[in-house]
Amino acid sequence: MPHASDTRQSIIDAVLRIIGQDGIAAVTNRRIAKEAGVSLGSVTYHFATQHELLRESLLHFVAEETRHFTALADACSDEHFDIGQAAEVVAQVAGGNAFDSRHIAPFELYVQAGRDERLRAAAAECFAAYDLLATRILTHLGVPDPERLAGVAVALVFGQQLRRLATGAPAEDLVDTLLILTKFTPTQTP
């Protein structure tokens, strides 16, 4: 018998897949149950409303991403961290985010937060986590005023990732954009 947290996780994973494949309008309890391999009653038992489903799915995705990015930032905490290493980390992040349905879903959820103010707190929490990670990396690079620039860096990453999603642009475009932001070229050192 599956544990309640496993069932809950299966439901969240199913919600993210459905959103990434067909958008938020495709999220129905019946489809979630089928996709997650759980009973219809399990969906409503674990999540009373669609709002709760969307919020928890968004927070779950960002928690996973934050763990991953924090590990990358921690690996970059070497006192000799330079722009070349930063470019490698950014390339790993950009190249590692294959645009499968699970990575498309957050874009849908962020847009939905613009329509549904009940999701805005979750979206704000997500962006605060991204800003914190960006601040850490910019700090390691010695970029002046990293707290102020973190939001700009995050917006740039999201914009480049959205562009990459929509056009098929290569991940290297993101690396080049971030190098420009930090006022370095690939051949220069800080």
Descriptive terms for the model:
190 residues, single chain
Provide the fold topology.
Blueprint: H1 4-22, H2 29-36, H3 40-46, H4 50-75, H5 83-96, H6 101-115, H7 120-141, H8 146-167, H9 172-181
Helix pairs in contact: 1-2, 1-4, 1-6, 2-3, 4-6, 4-7, 5-9, 7-8, 8-9
Number of helices: 9
Helix vs. strand class: mainly alpha
Q: Separation of termini? A: 56 Å
Roughly how much helix do the residues carry, as a percent range? over 70%
Runs in which pLDDT lies below 50 for 5 or more consecutive residues are: 184-190
Could you give the order of the helices and strands?
Answer: HHHHHHHHH
Please give the largest β-sheet.
Answer: none
Radius of gyration over C-alpha positions, nearest whole angstrom = 18 Å
Overall pLDDT metric: 81
- The general outline is elongated
Topology, number of strands:
0
Instruction: Report the sheet-strand fraction.
Output: under 5%
What does this structure look like?
InterPro entries: Homeodomain-like_sf, HTH-type_TetR-like_transc_reg, HTH_TetR, TetR_C_31. Pfam families: TetR_C_31, TetR_N. Residues 28-47 bind DNA. The protein is mainly alpha-helical. Helix content is 75%, strand content 0%. The protein contains 9 helices and no strands. The chain has helices spanning 4-22, 29-36, 40-46, 50-75, 83-96, 101-115, 120-141, 146-167, 172-181. The longest helix has 26 residues, at 50-75.
